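Final report, closing paragraph on structural work. Over the funding period we assembled a curated collection of sequence-structure pairs, and we close with a single example.
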Amino acid sequence: MKQKTILVTGCSSGIGYDVIYHLRDHGWRVFAACKQQVDCDRLAGEGFETVQLDYTDTSSIAAALDEVLKATGGTLGAVFNNGAHAIPGAVEDLPTDALRAIFEANVFGWHELTRRVIPVMRAQGYGRILNHSSVLGMVVMPWRAAYNSTKFAVEGLTDTLRIELRDTPIHVVTLNTGPVTSKIRVNSIPHFERWVDWEASPRVEQYRAKLLKRLYEDRGPDKFELPPSAVSAKVLQALTAKNPRPRYFITTPTWMMGVARRILTTRQLDWLLAKGA
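Its predicted structure, as stored:
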């Protein structure tokens, strides 16, 4: 990397928050992006350069990148698309508008920012684009259709972009995480309450027995859960490697599911995933 500058989204808590500290500690000039200005102000108080970036607002994306480029003199070494949210619920209970809303935040906004960054990196002759996918971009879990779908879409966009940019000095990297300590469960509750009328669902008893307990009760760390620092270490590796891997698996379940989807039949994989619901 000729210039150690990076724009990281979704920095208010969890993975993004840990990443910006880790990269700053390793000499990177970090621009921390948050959806809410109050979070930007808090991070500014912690010494970070911040920009307000709402993936659902094209003008916000453009303004955030313009602010970063103005600060750097028109260059940017890397971008880490990280900000995303979930909408728990069964497929049949998800209004189509709910899917439209989550795709705006988890996919279309990423695409918008990435398209704006590519010309900058192409002109400067270097750059890295890191997209934060998930084990749920490789396999699915019940009750997570909205999030599953966006991560599968991110996988398709990222894989295509990586191949298309092979003739450029821009590296495109996917990070597939599994259970990592974050606020994604808590942050998904308002979206669930806005969009899913679970009491009118034919699956109402399944909601009571399974999803509501998992959603509203803090049951401590999941099995195999890793701290955000595990992701931060891989982000730094992807940024500093001379020839970064196309994909980095993080957490044991990610590795396990990567193997399972290759060796199991569809019926066998369905049975395995249904048991974990």
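The first helix runs from residue 14 to 25. The beta strands are 5-8, 29-34, 49-52, 78-81, 127-134, 170-177, 247-250. We thank the funder for supporting this effort.
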